[in-house]
Amino acid sequence: MTQSRNVLKRISSILVPHKTVPRTWWTGNGRWDLSIPRVGILTFGLAVFGIGEALLIQSNIGNSPWTVFAQGISLHTPLDIGQSTFLISAGVLSMWIPLGERPGFGTIANMVVLALFLQLGVDYIPLVRNDFLLSLVMVLVGIGLVGIASALYITCGLGPGPRDGLMTAIHKKTRIRVGRVRLCIELVALTSGILLGGRSGLGTALFAVLIGNSVAIGFSLVHQFASQSQ
């Protein structure tokens, strides 16, 4: 009984959301401070991020806001959802120019690797039909993967993704709170995607509610891993 309590206590301590972005042994000192381990962790994180997003899509009960937008574009163009995601990232990145934001290696990798693995996930993970429980499990697993993946690529310190960079750049220029800026950006993407026919629903709502804590727990897990692997 005592042993079980100790195990549960250990698990709960690991899953406590981290309050800051932890610095790890693989964190770079600049956006182009490249090394094989750092680039490997970045690539792995972005690949997992893409698979997590693909799980939400294939759950068939609602995508994350930006993927609703990408899916909407794919319905009206010859592009698949991965190519649409890359196109959106490139468009968002172009908005950095007047805002004075500078991309890093991680920014470019985010555009390419995430879109590639999102499409691979969509191609090979079966679309769920008429199985709500399985859909719900896929959404929750997808959100968990996106959280851990975000923690991995962010702690590399090689530059934010296009959407994160746009958020911080607008915040710096306008002094509007980061949360409000991100909310407005997400709402624009989501509304545009819905108007184009992208799928939104329970999965979208769960993503919006849970993704913040998922990333924070991801930071906690990454911090624990980094501490033990030094």
Explain how this protein is built:
By secondary structure, the protein is mostly helical. The chain has one domain. It contains nine helices and no strands. The radius of gyration is 18 Å and the shape is globular. The mean pLDDT is 90.
What's this, in brief?
By secondary structure, this protein is mainly alpha-helical.
Count of spatially separate domains: 1
Report the radius of gyration as a whole number of Å.
18 Å
Number of helices: 9
Estimated helix fraction: over 70%
Estimated share of beta-strand residues: under 5%
Q: Which whole number gives the mean pLDDT?
A: 90
Q: Which parts are unreliable, with pLDDT below 50 for 5 consecutive residues or more?
A: none
Shape: globular
Q: What sequence of helices (H) and strands (E) makes up the elements?
A: HHHHHHHHH
Distance between the termini: 33 Å
Decide which structural class fits the backbone: mainly alpha
Q: How many distinct beta strands?
A: 0
Summarize the biggest pleated sheet: none
